[in-house]
Amino acid sequence: MIADLLLAPPKSTIPLYVVGIYLALLLGFSIINSRRPRGSAGEYFVASRSIGPFLLLMSVFGTTMTAFALVGSTGKAFDSGIGIYGLMASASGIIHSLVFFLVGIKLWAIGKRYNYVTQIQFFRNRFDSNALGYLLFPILVGLVIPYLLIGILGAGSVMFGVAGVPKWLTGAVICSVVLAYILTGGVRAAALANAVQTIVFMAVGLLAFVLISDSLGGLEAATQAVADNTPQLLAREGEIGHLQFLSYCFVPLSVGMFPHLFQHWLTARSAKTFRMTVIAHPIFIMIVWVPCVLIGVWAAGAGVEAPGGNSNAVLAKMVGMQLKNPWISGLLLAGILAAIMSSLDSQFVCLGTMFTHDIVVHALGEDRVSEVQRVRLGRGFIIAIVALTYVLSLFPPPNIFDLAVWCFSGFASLFPLVVAAVYWKRATRAGAIASVIVAGIVWSALFYDGLIAPALTGEHVDGDYLIWGMMPVAFMIAASTVTLIVVSLATKPLPAATVERYFGIGQKVT
Amino acid sequence: MPHAAQTGMSSTGKFAWALIALLAILHYDFWNWEDRSLMFGFMPIGLFYQALISIGAAVAWALVVKFAWPTHIEEWADSPITDEQVENR
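Structure tokens for the assembled complex are given below, as produced in the milestone run.
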């Protein structure tokens, strides 16, 4: 049976029709959405702070689950076995919710009280420093762009693997569709589309799991093949180190500094809106990751070869097995694209928002840029960033999916800054700036050593880049934390009037 | 400047936070490192255990939300700000 499955089935155009119908429905949604009354920048950038619990859950989850979660997790499980669930998923279930609860809710309250729209606005005012804002902008944009690239390239590789669609065409189509609905509806359109797309990719993911296991002879047969052929993938020994496992727990802290997630937090109607997100997030992660991890190890057990040695193409190959029923293949493709687009939209909107508020409006002054002009500027910057990212996607760097963990590590290395901003009154302007600079230097040095240098020498790198068995993120966070504390204690505290504006949260106001 | 009174946390709230800490510790299941046995005939025990951690996390977070919620946060967010704070925001 497995040998039959590995034979290349004839290509059908039906999956493309299914994907086309799905994309057309999304475009129809954007047209309907564009007819709804709107106008203010507050509506475009933070949905008038009116998003309810269900939409917040779906938009936050859809935004956090990227191409990496579907395509990358399957590929990682194919390479390293079931241990990657504990490494990346279950830890995230605990830590993401922890960050939502301890940081997200506080930032929502501060954002609402002082009418913030971006995280740079918050940091700039919290530390009373324009320099910090201008320092953070290129770093945050620079970390989001590879993240966008991962999405576009992930979509391209799946569509190419299953339906033979050229990667440049897939990239152009999904960028256009996402642009269509976010340009008309801003962050509310992104949240609504995320809700739809999250439901689609979770349902389709479960369908893929059932069908692929069925095609491999059932759950027990599929896993038995792994036990017979690649038993090492059923445990962690020899695949994942103990210190690697423990230090990986720092990576999910990145959600505390994702600018697109910050923007979604600000859309919440109330603090209570976060409750459903905090509780359901770990379960949603499990629903998406467990099937992907099993599909990855089943692929290895079934003797599937990663096309071109690229394990990130394994999911596409496994989905391709379903081409016996092209309608189902089309649905699976649509589900994978839904997961990818549900991250792209929020990231595009957030970059437009940051450029408008943190650069243009801040430089020109609040009174000199009307609300209509702000929305237009945001849209213009979004189009420019999409164009830039699309062009970059035509010349993909090697090991593109390895970039994901580096991006997350970069955001995580800035996490001490946000914790200090909301919990440590003694944190100073110099401490904050020094912390960001040191995080940037350490990240750049390790990134060069771990990814760029091997690529320049043509060296093939297997597995994660580790230092003394630990993930580099552990050293990045340690460096930025120590710098923040030492420099803050060595420099003059901020005026009490500046600091006190941000403390007193959670206390009864009388 | 509004007068503020710190709110306390119930013992159930403290228990809920302790549960989160316990789950974070139990997440490091070194005893499953080499174990390749299967649950229900198809689920590797290391994956099954970590899936249980995910379910446990959802339960623990439900308890934190129920018993350790920052009750006055919305009141603070909606309370009026001073002219000075308006200028500085």
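The longest helix of chain B spans residues 45-67. The CA atoms of residues 8 and 68 of chain B lie 9 Å apart. Further analysis is deferred to the final report.
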